[in-house]
């Protein structure tokens, strides 16, 4: 684990490098989700349930689960790294009134429409696979290095 990315629903999320988790990539930058050591058994089960739900998904607009490490403590969930973070924080960082903002240009109208389409595609995929997200929000949409937006936060996903 190379650096802390922030607090997730169950514990800290770190950036790291995993070997052999993606075909044809010897090393892959990943997000590593942890569960707090003080978490209750119920919270630990919910944490693993999120991973269990995500392992079913294979869509370019849904964050990919790459693996789970359940031996030892803490339990780790290895996911695709979304380098620009969640959509809410990303868009807020573009506000002109933010101090020390390196004057990043906000997305164009066409890019925002594309982002909305990517979110819709991810949700359509979940629907086609009989899943309901139940907490779609900008904080649960993640932004990749190339500005692709993917659905994350599967804690509330429910199979119907």
From TrEMBL:
InterPro entries given in the database record: Kinase-like_dom_sf (IPR011009), Prot_kinase_dom (IPR000719), Protein_kinase_ATP_BS (IPR017441), RTK (IPR050122), Ser-Thr/Tyr_kinase_cat_dom (IPR001245), Tyr_kinase_AS (IPR008266), Tyr_kinase_cat_dom (IPR020635)
GO molecular function: ATP binding; insulin receptor activity; insulin receptor substrate binding
Main localisation: membrane
Topological category with respect to the lipid bilayer: Single-pass type I membrane protein
Domain of life: Eukaryota
Reaction(s) catalysed (UniProt annotation): L-tyrosyl-[protein] + ATP = O-phospho-L-tyrosyl-[protein] + ADP + H(+)
GO cellular component, one term: axon
Keywords: ATP-binding, Cleavage on pair of basic residues, Disulfide bond, Glycoprotein, Kinase, Membrane, Nucleotide-binding, Phosphoprotein, Receptor, Repeat, Transferase, Transmembrane, Transmembrane helix, Tyrosine-protein kinase
E.C. designation(s): 2.7.10.1
Protein name: Insulin-like growth factor 1 receptor
